[in-house]
Every structure is written in C-alpha cells, then in structure tokens.
Automatic annotation (TrEMBL):
Signal peptide: 1-22
Domain of life: Eukaryota
Sorted UniProt keywords: Cell adhesion, Disulfide bond, Extracellular matrix, Glycoprotein, Metal-binding, Repeat, Secreted, Signal
Region (Disordered): 719-753
Every Reelin domain range: 27-193
Record-given protein name: Spondin-1
Record organism: Parambassis ranga (Indian glassy fish)
Biased composition (Basic and acidic residues): 725-736, 743-753
Length: 806
C-alpha cells in the first residue's frame, strides 16, 4: 500500500532496492505546489530520513582526471566506485546546473552516454538520470558525460547509492562533484555550436597543427619506426553537414582516414556536399610524427567562413594505430556578438572511430562488427593501451591546434567595437593584397623572402616566389612568379627591419626526472623572418628547473650540478651540444643511480645561407621495384633555381612503399617413397610409390603434380604344365588360399611358425582426389618356439585410392 501523501510514481523511482529495504524508509514529500511543477522531472527523487549512515568514505563519485573545471562540449568518463570490501546494489546519477532543483528541463547539464547496457540504463521516469540495469552486488559503474555548451556555468554531478538498507546521499562530499566552466584563454573562443550565425561579411583563417605525440611525452609502446600523422583533411561548412562527431558513426571517408590514413574518400564526401561547404582544408602528412619546430615548421592551411558556413572541422590519423584520430568537430567561429572569433586554441586527445577493435598502436586488423560509435579514448580503456593509467588520470594531449583569424572582408556588423589586433590584422591583409595581379590569374601565396645573398654590408639580393595555379583567360598575360629585391647582410639595415615575428610558446614538456630536481623545456618557431634578411636572434627554446617528489625514496642518488655546455657541433644552422654531471652519492639501497649524467640538446647557429628552392613538379611515381608483393617506388623533381643564389636543401627524390598482388607460391611435395612389392607372385603385376603434398599452391603458383606412380613388374612366368607334379602344386596353392581366407574369416591366420591377428581395416585415403594411398596391417598374435624371426613378422599391404582427377 502506498504511504499516505506520497505520489505513487515516487515509489517507481526509489524501489530499485530490495523490497524489505523499501518498506523501511520514510519519505518526505515536496510541497504540493512544487509537486505539480515538477511533474515528470527528477526533482521527485526524494531522500530517506532513516537508516542514514553519516560516514561514506568507502564510496566515491569521480570524473576522469579529477578536473576542477570542464571544457564545454568535451566528453568525460564518470565512475562510481566502492572500496573493498564494500559494495552497492543500486544507484542514481544526475547532473544539474548549480543552484537548480531539477524541476525544469533546462536545469539539467550535459548528457550522459551509456557504456555497458548490462550495467546501466537511463531512468524510465527521469530520462536525464542514469540508474542500474538490474539490482545486484557491484563495486563500480562507469558512464560518459558530455559537458554542456559554453555559458552553462557551474555543474554539480550527484550520486545516490543503496547498500543493503542504507541510502547514501547525493549531497555528501564524496558522492558530489562540482565543476565550473573552463575560462577561455583566447578571448573569442566560441560556443559549440551556435545554431545560427549573425555575423556579416566573410573571414579568413589560418589553422596550424602542432603534433605533440613523441616518445618523450608518450613513451609507452611508442612506435619508433613508423610513427606519423596522416594528411589532414577538413572543411569549413554549414550546420547541415557533419564530418564527424562524438556519438555518431564514422562515414566511409572517416573510416579510410582512421584505418589507412588516406584522405581521398573523405575529400570526395566533402566535395559532394556542394553549397554546404565553403573551403576544403588540406595539409600534408608528417613523417615522423614529431620534430623540433626549428627543424620542421608546423603544417598550416588557410580557409574562409561566412554566415551560413561558419563551422570548421578536420581530422588526422596518428599512425600506426587501429583507428585513432584527433581533430575538431563543428568548431564555431561565429561569436554571439555577430563577429568572427579572433583566435581558438585547443589541446587534442585521440578518439576512436569505432571501426577497428585493436587496443595497441600496432594491433592486427580486427574489424568492429557491428560498427561502434565515435568516442574519445580514455586512460581506462584497456590495460594494453598505450594511454592506460590504472588511476584513471587524464590522457596527455597528443597535439594542439591553433585557428587564427588573418583577415575579414566585406561590411562587418559585430556589435562589439574592434580591438587593436582586429584592426592591425585587417590592415596588414589589405597591404598584402595591393598588387596588380589580374583576377584571371590564380596564384599561390608568396613564399617568405629568402636570406640575403650577401653576408656583409655589400649589396646583395633576396628572392621570393609563388606558383601560378590557373590562368582563366589566356588572352590576359599573368605576371612573373619570382620577385627579387636588393638587401644587405645582417646588421647593416635599420633596426626596425630586423624584427622577428615569433609563434606562441608550446606547452612545457614533462620534467626530465621522476624524482627530485630536473629540467623541462618548451619551444616556439619563427613565423616571419626579418624583412632585411638578417638572422633572427630571439630564442626558440626555453629551459627551466622543475622539482618532482622532493622526498625521494632510498633508491635516489645525489648528483653534482650540470657542467657548462660544449660548443655547438654546427657552425651554421641546427646543431647539437652536450653537458655532463657526476654522481656524488649513489643510492642508499645499493641500486644503480637512475639520474641522467649526460644531457644533449639542439643549438641554433646563424642561419646557413640557403634560399627557398625553385623546383619542377614531381614526376610520376616509378613502377614498383618488384613484380609482386612488397616493394618501393620513387619519384623525382629537378632544381630550377640559379646556382648563384645559394644551396638548395629541399629533397629531390621521394621513396614510398608499394604493394602488388602477392607473389605466386608453387606447390611443394615430399620425396617419393620406395617402390612397393609387386602385387603378383607370378606373371604380370605392378608396384606403386607415393609422395605427399607439403604446401598447396597459392596466388597462381604451379599446381601440384601426381602423388602416385605405377610401374609394371614381373616376378616369374606362371607355368601351366601337364605333369602330375604341376597339377599337385596348383591344387596345393588353391588349398592354401582357401585356408588363408577361412583363417581371416575366423579372426586368425596361420603363418609359418606363428599365429597372426586378422587384417586391420584400411586407413583413410591420404587424398580426396588425384590419387592417394591406403594401408592395412596384420600383426603377430603368437609366435611358436620353433619359429624363426625372419619367417614370423608383421605384414603391411598398400593400395591406391581416389585415383580420379580433382
């Protein structure tokens, strides 16, 4: 019977606990006016007033990585655990905006996603909440939670659990997690996504991808030989098109990028979307995955957005991997103030495309059937995962993407006045665009100016170049693709002209030691060299001291301070330098000192005077070096730049792997057996010999030849004499044959000096077709004392079988 004053449906929400427990609780009903307002919402999950246990430290609600704040739109793993020997039978999990009661739809924050349907499900009468699928003993459950959009404020995740007859409350410390929205570090980073954009005109952006996946930062099982980022593919697009998204299924294009690193299918899908796409975004693959920025510049591409196509998405595979990628999905560059975001920076963790079930970088192909939804990787996915952390900590980002606005065109209508950076960016772009290039000539952007050909204050010259992509009107000539201007060596021009433009600093690397004092470093790169051709002297790398776990274990050791750095190994450009230190005191426990005593780092000397090369287009790929199986192919290009301008360091030949149909494998057969005895004691008979197929032919290899051969044999001529002796002999042989047959029927057989067991059954034929053999045996059952060993022995018969052709 329902307790008086309690709405019947409240019982449906709470009685997932054993019935005896339900009958023990007394409930407090909400005021009647609130009950009407809360109809159909989770505010009607009431709290018990009896059997409450005050201390519940054995239960904990945890968000992966223990973040203090959430990134809007990001997905987190949420776990509810009981420490041994505790357990729980039922639970309720809900996420509310701080200060709300859950009596309105807008009170709920973010969305839960079920990981294991056998463990968890959405509550029937309260869809935003998660509860258990079946009441039973359990020590942990986990679900995904996607944070709400920007502007949602602080969020409170609450859990109630049931253990026997005790309810633990949502508002107790370890069962409540409060997180506030992460403040943007970059000003105009926008909500994700705005459904409608109110900005005017168009904006042009540059997206730069910084790979941070390296053996130093992600050491577990790091693939040293083949690590790379695949070619980046993406687009600026409208809200009607989704390249990829968490909780969605990978398209064929996404699958091809995720598993093979190929952008071809993805680009086809993007271009088929017509007016929903404004710009296709493409960047080259990076082999290896990480190199210092002063050795290899970070890849970048430019794209445009407008009012209808204001979203930007891209993806790239980290390889080798089963189907792991990083990227942005529907990043909105339109602001609430009807303007265009100036800068967006995001650290990226890998996500699983749901098409392959491998758990390590180099797992063999294992298609996921049926296909899973796209989801972020976590540190608790699998113990063999390179990102596994038994504590469930956050995965260290493998890359960072920076989207910078470089120009705006057309009349702008944002209601917030432009700041200085906005004005300068637009003016700089206008200055760049003031040239006399006809509209019918489509060029690439100018390359940066080369270094000056003179290293002294004597006059020299420097060069820049661009590529003619298309000439729409052959009657209108297109201007030159090379540009030269005079220059002087470093330090010979005005101070203002020698200003370098540097990128932002990349995040600090991990500390160089796991215990005690060490160092960490960070890098940046030169975005624009001085206009006068001088060398940029601003540092591209910074190092600082760091301390990890000051109270180190007895296995730690004391070392001296680092010595001075050696001279750089290069006289110009990039080189290496080293320094050393000594062990002052070995570990107290007698173990080997694990501290580094040799340190090597890169050093940058004045720039070697090289120029951006003028090169011919790449030739077609050569034929594969093999006619079957795995090989390589090459392609070349030629140097067109004048020799007097300096040395060209660009590669002139590329080599890549190629795969042709598998090489044929011929049939392999064993050696022939010895010839068998003749099957007749006189007259014409035959003997046989056989061989086995050791390896069947594959991929069109030579077929197997015969496995059985026969040859004629003749022991002696059978005689048919008229004399009594021959007639007696013949009759004797017939009697012996009849006696032999009779012996077999009776289960025994006589043999001179011994008694034999009957013949065994014939063995199975060694082949189904093409000629095989069968055997049967007769073994000695009893040997008489008078028997000679040579006349009393086991016998074997062989015959051909399945001689019909295959």
């Amino acid at each position: 019977m329902t307790p008086a004053g309690l709405h019947p449906r409240v019982i449906l929400l709470l009685c997932f606990v054993p019935t005896v427990a339900c009958n023990t609780f007394a409930f407090t009903e909400e005021p009647s006016e609130r009950a009407g307002k809360a109809d159909g919402h989770c505010s009607r999950i009431l709290r018990a007033q009896r059997n409450r246990k005050e201390s519940n430290n054995e239960f904990r609600l945890r968000v992966e990585g223990d973040p203090e704040s959430y990134q809007p739109g990001s997905t987190y793993r949420v776990t509810l655990t009981a420490s041994s020997p505790s357990y729980f039978r039922g639970f309720t999990l809900i996420a509310l905006k701080e200060g709300t009661e859950g009596d309105k739809d807008e009170d709920y924050a973010g969305n839960f996603q079920i990981i294991d349907e056998e463990e968890t499900q959405f509550m029937t009468n309260c869809p935003p909440a998660v509860t258990e699928s079946t009441p039973r003993r359990r020590t942990s459950i986990q679900v995904f939670w996607t944070a709400p959009p920007s502007g949602s404020g602080c969020v409170v995740l609450k859990a109630s659990i049931v253990q026997n007859r005790i309810i633990y409350f949502q508002d107790e410390g370890s069962l409540t997690k409060r997180m506030c929205e992460k403040e943007s570090l970059y000003g105009d980073a926008t909500d994700k996504p705005l459904l409608d954009c109110c900005a005017c005109g168009t904006a042009k952006y540059r997206v730069t991808f910084f790979g941070n996946w390296s053996e130093k930062i992600h050491p577990k099982d790091y693939p040293r030989r083949a690590n790379h980022w695949s070619a980046i593919i993406g687009a600026s697009h409208s809200k009607n098109y989704v390249l990829w998204e968490y909780g969605g299924f990978a398209s064929d294009g996404v699958k091809q990028v995720a598993e093979l690193g190929s952008p071809v299918k993805m680009e086809e899908e993007i271009r088929q979307k017509g007016d929903d796409v404004l710009t296709v975004i493409k960047m080259k693959a990076q082999w290896p995955a990480w190199q210092p920025l002063n050795v290899r510049a970070a890849p970048s591409a430019e794209f445009s957005v407008d009012r209808t196509r204001h979203l930007m998405s891209f993806l790239t595979m980290l390889g080798p991997s089963p189907d792991w990628n990083v990227g942005l999905s529907a990043e909105d560059l339109c602001t609430k103030e009807c303007g265009w975001a100036q800068k967006v920076v995001q650290d990226l963790i890998p996500w699983d495309a749901g098409t392959d079930s491998g758990v390590t970088y180099e797992s063999p192909n294992k298609p996921t059937v049926p296909q899973d939804k796209i989801r972020p990787l976590t540190s608790l996915d699998h113990p063999q995962s390179p990102f596994y952390d038994p504590e469930g900590g956050a995965i260290i980002p493998v890359s960072r993407v920076m989207v910078e606005r470089i120009a705006r065109k057309g009349e702008q209508c944002n209601i917030v006045p432009d700041n200085v950076d906005d004005i300068v960016a637009d003016i700089a772009q206008e200055e760049k665009e003031e040239d006399d290039t006809p509209e019918t000539c489509i060029y690439s952007n100018w390359s940066p100016w080369s270094a000056c050909s003179s290293a002294t204050c004597e006059k020299g010259k420097r060069m820049r170049q661009r590529m003619l992509k298309a000439q729409l009107d052959l009657s209108v000539p297109c201007p030159h693709t090379q540009d030269f201007e005079p220059c002087m060596g470093p330090g010979c021009s005005d101070e203002d002209a020698s200003t370098c433009m540097m990128s932002e600093w990349i995040t600090w690397s991990p500390c160089s030691v796991s215990c005690g004092a060490g160092t960490r470093s960070r890098e940046r790169y030169v975005k624009q060299f001085p206009d006068d051709g001088s060398v940029c002297t601003l540092p591209t790398e910074e190092t600082e001291n760091c301390v990890v776990n000051e109270e180190c274990s007895p296995s730690s050791c004391l070392v001296t301070e680092w010595g001075e750095w050696d001279v750089c190994s290069a006289t110009c450009g990039l080189g290496m330098k080293r320094r050393e230190r000594m062990v002052k005191m070995p570990p107290a426990d007698g173990s080997i000192c694990g501290a580094e005593v040799l340190e090597v780092e890169k050093c940058m000397m004045p720039e070697c005077h090289t120029i951006p090369c003028m090169l011919t287009p790449w030739s077609d790929w050569s034929d594969c070096s093999v006619t079957c199986g795995k090989g390589v192919r090459t392609r070349q290009r030629m140097l067109k730049s004048p020799v007097e301008l300096g040395e060209c360091t660009e590669e002139l030949e590329q080599v890549e792997k190629c795969m042709l149909p598998e090489c044929p494998i011929d049939c392999v057969m064993s050696e022939w057996t010895e010839w068998s005895e003749c099957n007749k004691s006189c007259g014409k008979g035959h003997a046989i010999r056989t061989r086995m197929v050791m390896l069947e032919p594959q991929f069109g290899g030579d077929p197997c030849s015969e496995t059985i051969q026969r040859k004629k044999c003749k022991i002696r001529k059978c005689t048919r004499g008229q004399g009594n002796s021959d007639e007696k002999k013949r009759r004797k042989e017939q009697r012996e044959k009849r006696r032999s047959k009779q012996g077999r029927a009776e289960g025994t057989s006589e043999h001179p000096g011994c008694r034999m067991r009957p013949w065994s059954d014939w063995t199975d034929c060694t082949k189904l077709c093409g000629g095989g053999i069968q055997e049967r045996l007769m073994t000695v059952k009893q040997r008489f004392k008078t028997a000679q060993l040579s006349s009393c022995k086991d016998r074997k018969e062989i015959r051909a079988c399945n001689v019909h052709p295959c």
